[in-house]
Amino acid sequence: MIEFRLDTSSGVPPYLQIVRQVEHAIRLGLLRTGDRLPTVKEVASSLAVNPNTVLKAYRELDHRGLTSGKVGSGTFIEPSRSVVSPAQLKLLRRSLHNWIRGARAAGLTDADIDAFVADARKDIPERQIGEVRRDESGGR
Amino acid sequence: MNQAAVNPAAVSAHRLGRRYGKLWALRDCSLRLGPGSVVALVGPNGAGKSTLLNILAGLIEPSEGEVRILGETPNDRVRSRVAFTAQNHPLYRSLTVAQTMRAGRLLNTEWDEPMARERFAQLDIPLDRRVGRLSTGQQAQVSLTLALAKRPQLLLLDEPLAALDPVARQVFMQTVMGAAADGEVTIVLSSHVITDLERVCDHLIVLDHGRVQVAGAVDDLLAEHTVLSGPADQAESLRRNHVVIGASTVGRQTIALVRGETPHDEAWRAEPVGLEELVVTYLRNPHQAALPGPRGIVKDQVA
Question: Which pLDDT score, from 0 to 100, does residue A128 have?
């Protein structure tokens, strides 16, 4: 069983914090295939958060294929299908290294780089993954 | 959620007003609260929050306008399905918790005694203790438990968190959210601080000077507002071409809250707005209003 916590000051919407905590727990093996997530009522009352927030998180987990919800019986962890393959990760890592080398050469500090990445991330919001509209992503 | 289409609104009010002498405590208040919603009623002290809640509870009559509670004009049967806890959780201090429960059982047609007992046990509230000797947090829990034991369809909580410390607030809201998750109850909580209610509400009503200034589903309100920061010398053209709710300029930079469409201009950087910032900006700009949201609460005619 997983216990959720919410960080009010993080700026991350509460529903997304719940989604990420489940993802994280799956990645670490704390949640495994067939495990049941706590009910919406349990989460809503333990976090003192609106039940719709929990429902939204659970719907998102369903949508991402991480869980399957069955009305009346609960929400269960699905067999994991790793979203990112090791080869893909390796490739991403290499291109990031190249970018960071370029940034260092240009004289950017660690703080500059973090700010740069955070800023660029905002241009392409997370929910648009898979449906990034390249024509509009450079608007800022 | 599908019940929303079938069930009548928990509350629908049309041009509701209440006058005390020459002073209007509430004026031209029209709203509709969908069944099952959790509504934050916020506004500064004296904005009319308690007056509105007292009218919804059937404790005072409106001076003008109409209100329907659970689809009916207020009557005894409807009132038995509405639970109201006034500010500071008033209780008979000399009664024990058990005696208070007994009074609740005798005074209400619907009464879920097992639920009440279970809650008191969970919260470690001794039944033989006099209410006046309980902590403020425990007293708040007793009055909330009494309200929930009526199995209300409309639960009205006036400034429920005002006197509570952070731990008691958390425990109180845990109980309220547990009740919300059971469904079938519409909950209205008032506060002069939105941050107290940010996590728990799905709908928002901002009252100011007796008038509804903002009403809508929280997600819709957040989605249709944007914070823009950009060059101060372009603030005027922003105001001309967009709906600017409020703006402040420091040096060469202007920060503005905009409703609806934002400029397709690289000079303005757009960021999502937080609920507190939204509420405060409206309250600082009393001539602005955001009425009706498309779902849940809409300003419309009484059905």
Answer: 47
User: Could you tell me the two tokens for A52?
Assistant: 């719709």
Q: Does A53 touch chain B (CB under 8 A)?
A: yes
Structure confidence by residue, pLDDT tens digits, A24-33: 888 877 888 8
For B178-233, the DSSP string reads HHHHH-S-EEEEEES-GGGTTTT-SEEEEEETTEEEEEEEHHHHHHHEEEEEEEGG
**Is any Cβ of chain A less than 8 angstroms from the Cβ of B200?**
yes
Cβ B293 vs Cβ B215: under 8 Å = yes
Report the chain A residue with the minimal C-alpha distance to residue B182: A41
Q: Could you tell me which of B216, B199, B192, B201 has the C-alpha nearest to residue B283?
A: B192
Q: In 3-state terms, what secondary structure has residue B31? A: strand
Q: Are B26 and B51 in contact (CB under 8 A)?
A: yes
Q: What is the pLDDT of residue A10?
A: 79
Looking at chain B, the whole-number percentage of residues with pLDDT higher than 90 is 78
Average pLDDT of the segment spanning A40-48: 94
Interface test with B, best of A43, A45, A47, A56 (most B CBs within 10 A): A45
**Considering only CB atoms, which chain A residues are within 8 Å of B174?**
45-46, 48
Q: pTM for the whole thing?
A: 0.81
Q: Using the predicted structure, report yes or no on whether residue A84 has a pLDDT greater than 80.
A: no
Question: Which residues pair with residue B209 across a beta bridge?
Answer: none
Are A49 and A38 in contact, with CB atoms under 8 Å apart?
no
ipTM for this model: 0.82
Nearest CA in chain B to A12: B274
